[in-house]
Amino acid sequence: MEKLKMFRFSVVVVVVIICFGRLSVQAKKNVEQKKQTYIIHMAKSEMPASFKDHTHWYDSSLKSVSESAEMLYTYSNVIHGYSTRLTAKEAQVLEKTPGILSVMPELKYELHTTRTPSFLGLDQNANLFPESDSVSEVVVGVLDTGVWPEGKSFDDTGFGPIPTSWKGECESGTNFTASNCNRKLIGARYFAKGYEAALGPVGQTKESRSPRDDDGHGTHTSSTAAGSVVSDASLLGYATGTARGMATRARVAVYKVCWLRGCFSSDILAAMDKAIDDNVNVLSLSLGGGMSDYYRDSVAIGAFAAMEKGILVSCSAGNAGPSSYSLSNVAPWITTVGAGTLDRDFPAYVSLGNGKNFSGVSLYRGDSLPGKLLPFIYAGNASNVTSGNLCMTGTLNPEKVSGKIVLCDRGVNPRVQKGSVVKAAGGAGMVLTNTAANGEEQVADAHLLPATAVGQKTGDAIKDYLLSNPNPTATIFFEGTKLGIEPSPVVAAFSSRGPNSITPEVLKPDMIAPGVNILAGWSGAIGPTGLAEDNRRVGFNIISGTSMSCPHVSGLAALLKSAHPDWSPAAIRSALMTTSYTAYKDGKVIQDVATGKPSTPFDHGAGHVDPVSALNPGLVYDLTVEDYLNFLCALNYTAQQINGLARRNFSCDSSKQYSLNDLNYPSFAVSLQAQIGSTSGSAGVVTNVVKHTRTLTNVGSPGTYKVSVSTTSESVKISVEPGTLTFSQTNEKRLYTVTFTATSKGSNANVFGRIEWSDGKHSVGSPVAISWT
Question: Where is each Peptidase S8/S53 domain found (predicted)?
Answer without folding.
Answer: 137-587
